Amino acid sequence: MRRQGYDVVVCGAGLAGASTAYHLQQTHPPVRVAMVDSRPPLSLTSSRSTECYRDYWPSECMVNLMDRSIAKIHAIHNQLMESEGREGCGLSLCQKGYSFFADTDEASSRLMGSVDHFHRMGRPVREVRADDAVGDDGLSGHGLDVYDGPESVRKHYPWAGEGMRGCLKAKRCGWLDAQRLGGFFLEEAKRRGLEVIRGEVVGVDISSSREGQVVTIRRDNTASPTQLSCPTLVLAGGPFLPSLLSLINAPPFPLPAAAAAALTLLPPRVFPFLVNEVHAKVILKDTLGLMPQDHPNAGMQLYSDSQVLDWPAVFREDPQGFLSLLRETEGGMPVEMELVDRLLGRLADGAHFRPYRPDRLLIIWDVMHDGLQVTHPPPPEPSLYTSLYPEVAVRGIQRLIPRLSAYLGQLKQLCSVDGGYYCKAPDNRPVIGPLPTQPSVIICGGLGGFGVMASPAAGELAALHVMKRVSGWTDDSGASFPSYTEAFLPSRFCSEVYLNEVCGPSNAGKRGQI
């Protein structure tokens, strides 16, 4: 069996792995890095992203992580623009903000409460009145704009439903070309010596070699496996991270004695604190141009209220007939009466959309797929409700943009559906750092829902953990970790108090996307 030696092996060629490899190759001199994946780089979840970024988060550690990441995104964009000249587009940044709408007093109060939280973190807050001019901050936008009252909302968001009572716009938010970002990481890393190896990881031995970890891979074009030895191993496999962890030939994680009780509240999983969820989006052809994409506020639009969908009366009068219709149109997808009851009842908040291309809208409201179980390893393509999901998603954003009702009855011709997977931790925060009992194994994952926007800072942080091992850093050596480092360590799940805090009965059912 052939064996090759490296300083670091990165398992996973998505954005998290590419960013980690890129930041490792920025060291002087660069370490010798191999990146391994059974698929072409950036071809799984990284290719199915919503491609967005935001600095609006409920916790200070996430705000600080995203501040760092967005700063790096802007720097990479500027670097590409400079190298491409006048014809270049860089990362195709579009920063028109995230706008959160409310049409009930409860949701409006929640939004206004988050303004105080954001203000305490030193972010500028501006109240926008109906008679204020509609402004365009472009890539310099920062802080929050508050639109309090229907008149202000309608003036600045002319497509919004008349019932909207308030809106909060987080301005340092937008979207980018995720493939271009990942391509930048890969090309720069390869230019400095990164070796990309196509092969499936079939074993991880952390005890048998004096050279450190031994990763066994199987390549498509070779009969015998290849072994890659390395002092430090990075697992950045996205939705394959739980499966990679299960290959480690030693207990990878010390659970607290009472952790089992807390974990019973979470979905089944191969590894204790990570779970995969299906992520799906709808692309709607806006053939009538109902969304004015050149408007300064035409950014990500989010509905902050729960809602009951306005289904045709016949569906409510005959739920069994609705069930039969769904089974007929959805092929092999699981369709039971429980799904019908859920769709006819009150559904969670969070329906959102953004302009996607000049004549497209990207819509997400995953009340359809959030209960689906994902096997380990996950299938290459997730099973999706391709017929029903567009109907649910478009009806879900009608409160935000009522004029889209013109497309009902035509959605089969106008919509497409695709998706991937979110790999998430129970606290909805990244998992970045060494395994507690195996410090030579660094995780960079748990980025479900924010992988694109977090990848620059997440890869940088994972690389810092690697270099601490490779360079022999000590706490007093002058090496600097960012303030958010501890909040994302895998070791936080060694704490029974923390596990009960994020997984216990008071948080049951609250694992939705941040």
Protein architecture, described:
The chain is an alpha/beta fold and 514 residues long. The chain folds into two domains: 2-51 and 179-274 and 427-507, FAD/NAD(P)-binding domain (3-Layer(bba) Sandwich), CATH 3.50.50; 98-174 and 276-421, D-Amino Acid Oxidase, subunit A, domain 2 (D-Amino Acid Oxidase, Chain A, domain 2). The protein has 14 helices and 23 strands. The two termini are 46 Å apart.
Element layout with pairings:
Blueprint (H helix, E strand, L loop, with lengths): L1 E4 L2 E4 L3 H10 L8 E5 L14 E2 L6 H25 L13 E5 L2 H16 L4 E3 L16 E5 L1 H7 L9 E5 L3 E2 L2 H14 L3 E4 L1 E10 L2 E7 L7 E5 L1 E4 L5 H7 L11 H5 L11 E11 L14 E4 L3 E2 L4 H5 L1 H11 L7 H8 L1 E2 L4 E6 L2 E5 L23 H9 L14 H4 E10 L6 E5 L2 E8 L5 H20 L25 H8 L11
Parallel strand pairs: 1-13, 2-3, 2-14, 3-10, 5-16, 6-7, 14-23
Antiparallel strand pairs: 4-9, 5-8, 7-8, 11-12, 12-13, 15-20, 15-21, 16-19, 17-18, 19-20, 22-23
Helix pairs in contact: 1-5, 1-13, 2-13, 9-10
How many helices? The count is 14
Note the beta-strand portion. Answer: 15-25%
CATH topology of the largest domain: FAD/NAD(P)-binding domain
Helix content: 25-40%
Largest sheet: 9 strands, mixed
Shape: globular
For this structure, what is the CATH homologous superfamily of the largest domain? FAD/NAD(P)-binding domain
Number of DSSP-assigned strands: 23
Gyration radius, to the nearest Å?
Answer: 24 Å
Protein name: FAD-dependent oxidoreductase domain-containing protein 1
GO molecular function, one term: oxidoreductase activity
Function: Required for the assembly of the mitochondrial membrane respiratory chain NADH dehydrogenase (Complex I). Involved in mid-late stages of complex I assembly.
Organism: Vitrella brassicaformis (strain CCMP3155)
